[in-house]
Amino acid sequence: MIEILSYGAFFLTMALTYAVIALGLNLQWGQTGLFNVGIAGFVAVGAYVSAILTTPFSDGRLGGFDLPIVVGWIGGGLGAGFLCLLLGALTLRLRSDYLAIATFGAAVVIQLALLNLEALTGGPFGISFIPRPFADLSDRANLFAFANLAVMVVLVLACYAALQHLVRSPWGRVLRALREDETAARALGKNPVSYRLQAFAIGGCVMGLGGAAQGHFIGFIAPENYLPTLTFQVWAMLIIGGSGNMRGAVLGAVLVWAIWALSGSVVSSVFPADQQARAASLQIVLIGVSLCAVLLLRPRGILGEAGTLRRQPKATSTPSEGQNTHD
Amino acid sequence: MTAHREGPVLAARGLSRSFQGIQAVGDMSLSLGRGELLGLIGPNGAGKTTMFNMLAGSLAPDSGRIEVMGQDVTGEGAERRLSRGLGRTFQIPRPFPQMTVLENVLCGAQDQSGEKVMSAFFRPAQSRKDEARATEKARHLIDFLLLSHLIEQPASVLSGGQRKLLELARILMADPKVVLLDEPAAGVNPTLLEQIMERVVELNARGVSILLIEHNMEMITRLCSRVVVMALGRELAQGAPADVIRDPAVVRAYLGDAA
Ligand SMILES: Nc1ncnc2c1ncn2[C@@H]1O[C@H](COP(=O)(O)OP(=O)(O)O)[C@@H](O)[C@H]1O
Ligand SMILES: [Mg+2]
Q1: Number of domains present in the structure of chain B
Q2: pLDDT tens column, A121-164
Q3: For residues A264 and A266, what is the distance between their CA atoms, to the nearest angstrom?
Q4: Whether the Cβ atoms of residue A55 and residue A69 lie closer than 8 Å to each other
Q5: Is A321 exposed, middle or buried (0-12, 13-18, 19+ CB in 10 A)?
Q6: Count of domains forming chain A
Q7: Are B47 and B25 a contacting pair, CB within 8 Å?
Q8: What global pTM score does this model have?
Q9: How far is B221 from chain A (nearest CA, A)?
Q10: Does residue A99 belong to any structural domain of this protein?
Q11: Whose CB among A8, A75, B188, B227 lies 3.0–4.6 Å from B39's, allowing a Cys bridge?
Q12: Which residues of A fall within a CB distance of 8 Å from B56?
């Protein structure tokens, strides 16, 4: 029983690292309409920056600064956010499809760089001995699992609250205005490029943070973790959960990760060892099928965007209520 | 900043713009005096909206120069105009359809600290204060523009005329010194039209300079002391409305349009 619980904790912890990444994508796509097809690259940057900052010194590899995990996570988020800022500054002035091409290209370049900059990234073998939160509890497996889960729950709640606050703030209202009618928003003094750049960078920052956290829970990272499959998974999470809705992003992450993990264990128990690598592609097919099923039944995803919109008028009436009293 | 005190609040010199080799506006000059209510008329296709879009910054002129309050703004994008004191409405209104009337109007507020991402996060008290002040102002404007009963409705439910009022409320949030109105009367029912005209007059009486594109000659005659007539992208005539409509060249331009 305890084993099942601690497996559940481990499963949820991983799912929640994806939830953070999906929250970042929701700000970029769901709220701003920025088509990022290089998610894996930004997640990788977050994971590697954090790993390099926090791992102990090791021969033959630069980095290994042995810094606290929190510093690594912040560094990972900032690293990915800064990369988004650069990439956005180069492409957001151009037609919107350039961003898709640029992010895709960036993810490919990042993956190649991770493979080849051996002195910094450990090349194809990646970086191991990434410190895990609460490592001193690791001989008490259950407590360790739940402590890690608690960290992730707090991180997801913090990201959720921060993004939700932003989306409902006047800043978020400008994003919505730009999405609904860019010409009108410009005539009201809102600079579309500047706002898109901000949303893209903040979203990237959150993705990097998710990547960093993920690296620390797995304990080691390698370039093969950051293939386009990851980008596809996160997109499936957001679309299934409901693009434009922060809770949808979290829900989608847990559901898709459940499909992925369950089908993964079925594959490994049903197929003989030499067939498993090939059979693993069934997992991707399964996510694709779930995606289609959800889109057919609920075109806006399970929680859809309607939720966000319905809540909006209430959010703005709060300050005005305070005002009536003083009339 | 003192130089413009007497000079025009909006001045265009030698503006030209072509689309695919066809000139929509050619060498147009125009100046709007402080507190003036100037009409811009002309047959369909004369280039009025093109002229407007250049003045508002949403269309770059091929040549010419635009000044707002004596400052050269020719190279600036549309998003800089409102902070320069110039607001515009659209011939076909462009509300944010899924936002409420109140939210639409709040979008017109300038220098809101909550619109800056850092302040939204780290200076919540200041952001709330700005938002509360903006909300109060928005309510007054919505009241002034007769939309109070629709304040919590999404803008998509508004009629054409109400959308024009909403656009006006939106830019008035920024306290513009100059307002460009593109056909505020088109497609508006007579009662609402009367009310829109009253509001335009009142705004002008408060010192806002207004450039008005309009087909409704009755409205032009009642509101404007001076009109500029455009035809084929150029200025054809200007003067008092009563004189201009008797000008043979103007009559010919309108008849030519009808034929
Ligand atoms: N974006 C555009 N592309 C091509 N032609 C245009 C465009 N905008 C306006 N025109 C042309 O420029 C001329 C002037 O149009 P416009 O400024 O809308 O006139 P008005 O507002 O006086 O009716 C018309 O011949 C119109 O077809
Ligand atoms: Mg027109």
Answers
A1: 2
A2: 999 999 999 999 888 887 888 888 999 999 999 999 999 999 99
A3: 5
A4: no
A5: exposed
A6: 1
A7: yes
A8: 0.89
A9: 28
A10: yes
A11: B227
A12: 187
- Do B129 and B251 reside in the same domain of the chain? no
Residue nearest atom 8 in ligand 1 by C-alpha distance: B50
Give the pLDDT band (50/70/90) at residue A78: very high
Residue B47 CA to residue B236 CA, distance in Å, equals 12
B117 domain-assigned: yes
Q: Which residue has the tokens 């455009």?
A: B230
Could A166 and B107 be called an inter-chain contact, meaning their C-beta atoms sit closer than 8 Å?
A: no
Place of tokens 């993705």: A207
Residue A184, judged by CB atoms within 10 A of its CB (0-12, 13-18, 19+), counts as buried
ipTM (interface predicted TM): 0.91
- B49 pocket-lining for ligand 1 (C-beta < 6 Å): yes
Q: Do B127 and A169 touch (CB under 8 A)?
A: yes
Dihedral sign computed on CA atoms, order B119, B121, B126, B132: positive
Q: Give the domain extent around B119.
A: 96-157
Give the whole-angstrom CA distance, residue B49 versus residue B19: 13
| Distance in Å, alpha carbon of A322 to nearest chain B alpha carbon | 8
Q: Do B127 and A176 touch (CB under 8 A)?
A: no
- Give the contacts of A145 (CB within 8 A, at least 6 positions apart): A6, A9, A10, A13
